[in-house]
Every structure is written in structure tokens, then in C-alpha cells.
Specification:
297 residues, alpha+beta, four-stranded mixed sheet, 46% helix, signal
Length: 297
């Protein structure tokens, strides 16, 4: 019985390594060396065939194929979204931003279908499902580039080890998505997010709150190190009293953004110029009262 408290104490000390006291400009990123586990074969003469998680996931868990083929593609098509075209645009955008193209992009269009309405084969699978998401602006921002590199390397470690089958990795392009980032009240990328319960439980981590080491990020999701932090709560959080108002505002923001982004540059300049001129004239107009005339003697 004495062994149980010791094991719990050891586990808590390991989980605590994933959080950082803070990062300041110029400070070296803390790193830790994680010893790779060695597996000894029972028979060196006739080694047994090993199951390759990376090969299996590339063939059967390709999110690109899942989105562009089968019922999900049909559902997207039913609401006017060409899944193949959107996937190609996402991959092109990922290549331009210097991202790993194997990590899918969560967008305003597919978030509800992939996360909110995700279905599971059993309650145990639903309970284990974890989305590990990075919200970033790409390599043009120094901190975003740093977080992206650590995130992509952690993803590769998870593929190689095959120990995070319950975790889905994804990325959000902060500059292209409006609705989901507004619903999360996320105004400052880069940010790492743990999503549970079909998007109803969210945990946010800024770069200064977590160690940006690939091995540590990998272990962070493998052993559920995120359980040490409390999820987002309050009236604006999922299930909160004001969340419906935030959702409405997020949808309107997305529609306004879509209209503005579809306009040519000259039209945007014309509209903003007209608005600016109206505001200036409004604050400098006469109040309608006659000015007293000055009489000279």
C-alpha cells in the first residue's frame, strides 16, 4: 500500500515539468533530454514483425481523405463547401507559412463537423479523445515560428512512438479564421489549446506558460499533463450564460470578414476613405446656431 502514494508523487513530479514559470525575450528555451525506451527482442534470431503506427496512421487516419471522401465530404457539399478545393487551399497556405502539411487545419467551415459533431464507437473512445491545437500566424512572426517548430516536432515524435492514438493534432491559421477564434476570445497568437468533450472543455496555454520542447509537448499529451490546469470557465466559456451572445457575435464577425475579404483593394480604400471623411465632417460640422456678428465702431 505504501507503493501507491510513491507512484502518485512520482507522476505528479513528472507532470509538473511541462509548465514554465515564464519566458522573457532573450532567454534560452529550457530543454530536457528524454531517454528513448529500448525494447529487447525475445529472439534475436527470428525477430517478430512489429506493427508500425506511422505506416498505419498514414494509410487509415489521413484526415485529408476523411474530409474529402465519404459522409463528411457529402455533408460539407450539402452546405455548399467543396472539401477538395478547401483542402488544397489549406495545404497551399500551410506550405506558404512553413507548416507541416500533415497536420490538418481547423477552420470556421470544418470545426463544427470535425470537433463539435465528432462521433465515437464507444463512450471510452469519446472520453479519451483529445485535440491538441496550435493557433498561429506562421513563420513571419518569431514566436509563432518557434511554437510551430516545437509543435511539428512533437507531432513527429507521437507518430514515431505510436503512443498517442487518442490525440488529434491540428492547427488554426489565426489570420484566416474569425469565428472559432472569436468564440474562444483568443486575441493573441500563438496559443496552444487542449480541446475535450467535443469542444465544450478548453484549456489555453501561452508560450510563457509551457515548456516549448518537442519531447515535453509529446509527453504532455501522452500522459494527460493538461489535467493539472483548470479548464476555461465563466459566463463566456462553453456552457456559460453569455456564450450564446458570443457565438452570435462570432458568426456575424465571420460574415463581415468574408464580405470584406471578397472586395477588391480599391473598393476597400474607397469605403474606408468615405467613412473617414464622414466621421471628420460629423465632428467638425456647425452646431446650427448663428454666430454673433462682431460690430466695429
Amino acid at each position: 500500500m505504501r507503493l501507491v502514494p510513491c507512484l502518485l508523487l512520482a507522476l505528479s513530479s513528472v507532470q509538473a515539468q511541462y509548465f514554465s514559470e515564464g519566458w522573457t525575450p532573450g532567454q534560452v528555451i529550457p530543454t530536457e533530454t528524454v531517454d528513448a525506451e529500448t525494447i529487447t527482442s525475445a529472439s534475436a534470431a527470428t525477430p517478430a514483425a512489429r506493427w508500425n503506427w506511422q505506416e498505419f496512421s498514414s494509410k487509415h487516419l489521413d484526415l485529408g481523405k476523411i474530409v474529402t471522401e465519404g459522409p463528411i465530404a457529402s455533408a460539407l457539399s450539402g452546405i455548399g463547401i467543396n472539401a477538395v478545393e478547401q483542402l488544397e487551399l489549406a495545404r497551399k497556405r500551410a506550405a506558404e507559412r512553413g507548416w507541416d502539411e500533415r497536420i490538418p487545419l481547423l477552420t470556421d467551415s470544418n470545426y463544427e463537423l470535425l470537433v463539435k459533431n465528432e462521433t465515437f464507437g464507444s463512450p471510452e473512445e469519446a472520453e479519451k479523445r483529445t485535440w491538441f491545437v496550435v493557433v498561429t500566424v506562421g513563420k513571419q512572426d518569431t514566436m509563432s515560428k518557434l511554437v510551430d517548430e516545437a509543435f511539428d516536432k512533437a507531432y513527429q515524435l507521437a507518430l514515431d512512438a505510436g503512443d498517442a492514438e487518442h490525440v488529434k493534432w491540428a492547427r488554426v491559421d489565426y489570420l484566416a479564421e474569425t469565428e472559432i477564434t472569436t468564440e474562444w476570445m483568443l486575441w493573441k497568437p500563438p496559443t496552444l489549446i487542449i480541446i475535450k468533450d467535443n469542444g465544450n472543455t478548453l484549456r489555453f496555454y501561452q508560450p510563457g506558460q509551457i515548456v516549448l520542447d518537442p519531447a515535453m509537448l509529446h509527453k504532455f499529451v501522452v500522459i494527460d499533463g493538461w489535467k493539472e490546469t483548470e479548464p476555461w470557465s465563466g459566463p463566456w466559456a462553453p456552457g456559460g450564460s453569455r456564450q450564446p451572445y458570443l457565438h452570435t457575435y462570432a458568426v456575424l464577425s465571420r460574415r463581415v470578414y468574408n464580405v470584406i475579404s471578397a472586395l477588391p483593394r480599391w473598393a476597400i480604400l474607397l469605403i474606408t476613405g468615405a467613412i473617414g471623411s464622414f466621421i471628420i465632417n460629423f465632428f467638425h460640422k456647425d452646431d446650427g446656431k448663428k454666430k454673433p456678428s462682431t460690430v466695429r465702431d
